[in-house]
Amino acid sequence: MRLQYILEQAISNLRRNVLVVFAAVVAVLVMLALVFGTIIVRWSIDKDIGRWDDNVRVIAFLSDDLSLEEIDAIQSDIQAWDEVDDVVYYTKSQALDEFREIFFDQPSLIEIVEEDPSILPASLRIKPTEAADYSTIRDRLVVVPGVFQVSSADEAIDALVARAGHMRAFALWIMIILGAAAVVLIANTIRIAIFARRDEIGIMKLVGAGNWFVRVPFLLEGVIEGIIGAALAIALVWAVGGSIAELLSTSTAPGSLDPPTDFMIRQALILLGFGAGTGLLGSAFGMWGFLRD
Which residue, 116, 135, 152, sits at the end of a domain? Predict the structure, then answer.
């Protein structure tokens, strides 16, 4: 009977303050939609960076006067670095084959290089343990004897790593600012509901109702508002999550960055819990000073 009464009172409070409840739900919706959307974008960026981890190479071009023994020694030394995952030696002939593949549509350029293949130096292709390690490797390579030039995709890697960091910071600030706004709106909703029922609450206390018996319907009201807002945010972002990831990723493969279902379900459950917690916190603040023991 008590549970039925609590549910009836919570639903009744929601009906009495439709506009204020709507504002609180929208606040939770906006907050969690932005947070959920940011999580998906962050996932797509992390996946892009993961692809770079597998494909990033730092190229060390070698002097022509090095012997095979000296090249082997340099390769072994670099392989022992903590930042290095793998080192592959490319001969001049392999460099020429690679050049033909890259510039297959420019036969005149290929012809010029084939007349003097020596202009393509031998090199070491170094795979970093992590994409961000490329700068450390590059700095160490420039002082290695026998290495006359070092090449890496500096700007592209830095852009990806920086964008991931900015997106994480953005998600945190969005959660803090809009979370506070949602808590305040839900707190105001509860305060208005308590004020509207102040006479009824006074009578309940006179006949022996405890504070927690009075509080629980208001707490439940806040939780319901939070869950409704979170559910709407999940539905909205789920519908456009793949498009968000594709729009802001660096990948060009259609559909390759659609977030997996299990990832979306896990994040959705977390957001539902966060929405319920936001509503509970807002209710607690709303009752502060009104229904003390």
Answer: 152
113/96 Cα distance (integer angstroms): 8
Using the Cα atoms of residue 88, residue 90, residue 94 and residue 98 in order, give the sign of their dihedral: positive
Instruction: Report how many domains make up the chain.
Output: 2
Domain boundary among 103, 123, 152: 152
**How does pLDDT run across 59-79, given as a tens digit for each residue?**
899 988 888 899 899 999 999
| Residue 218 sits in the same domain as residue 82 | no
In a domain, 292, yes or no: no
Supply the Cα-derived Rg of the chain in whole angstroms. 31
Show the domain range for 133. Answer: 57-152
Residues 162 and 29 in one domain: yes
What are the pLDDT digits (tens) for 21-62?
Answer: 777 788 788 878 877 877 777 777 667 666 656 667 888 999
Q: Helices 154-196 & 211-248, crossing angle to 10 degrees? A: 150
The sign of the CA dihedral 197, 199, 203, 206 is positive
Q: CA-CA distance, 66 to 270, in Å (whole number)?
A: 58
pLDDT in tens, 133-190: 888 888 899 889 888 888 876 666 677 667 766 766 776 777 678 777 777 777 777 7
Same domain, 146 and 214: no
| Same structural domain, 77 and 47 | no
pTM for the structure as a whole? 0.56
